[in-house]
Amino acid sequence: MMYKRMISQVISSHRYSILLLVPRQTGKSTLLSSLQPDLEINFADEKTFLDFSSDPGRLRGL
User: Fold this and answer.
1) What's the pLDDT tens digit per position in 7-31?
2) Quick one: three-class SS letters along the chain?
3) Closest residue by Cα to residue 44 from 16, 23, 17
């Protein structure tokens, strides 16, 4: 069951980027997929984290 989250409107009104820091198993991925972002970078994924850590300038080109 998908609950309507009060923060959905706040997040979707941002035009650039947000940093979502909340505990595990609280529905972050479900929330993000419901908002259908243009780009999603998950630094919890080890390969993604290591790739961007070795070349942080890649973020500027996104």
Assistant:
1) 787 777 777 777 878 888 888 888 8
2) CCCCCCHHHHHHHCCCCCCCCCCCCCCHHHHHHHHCCCCCCCCCCHHHHHHHHHCHHHHHHC
3) 23
Judge whether residue 44 has pLDDT over 70.
yes
pTM greater than 0.85 (yes/no): no
Is the torsion defined by CA of 39, 44, 45, 51 positive or negative?
Answer: positive
- Tell me if 12 sits within 8 A of 19, measured CB to CB: no
Percent of the chain with pLDDT over 90: 18
Angle in degrees, CA 9, 1, 45, rounded to 5? 70
Q: Check if the beta carbon of residue 2 is closer than 8 Å to that of residue 35.
A: no
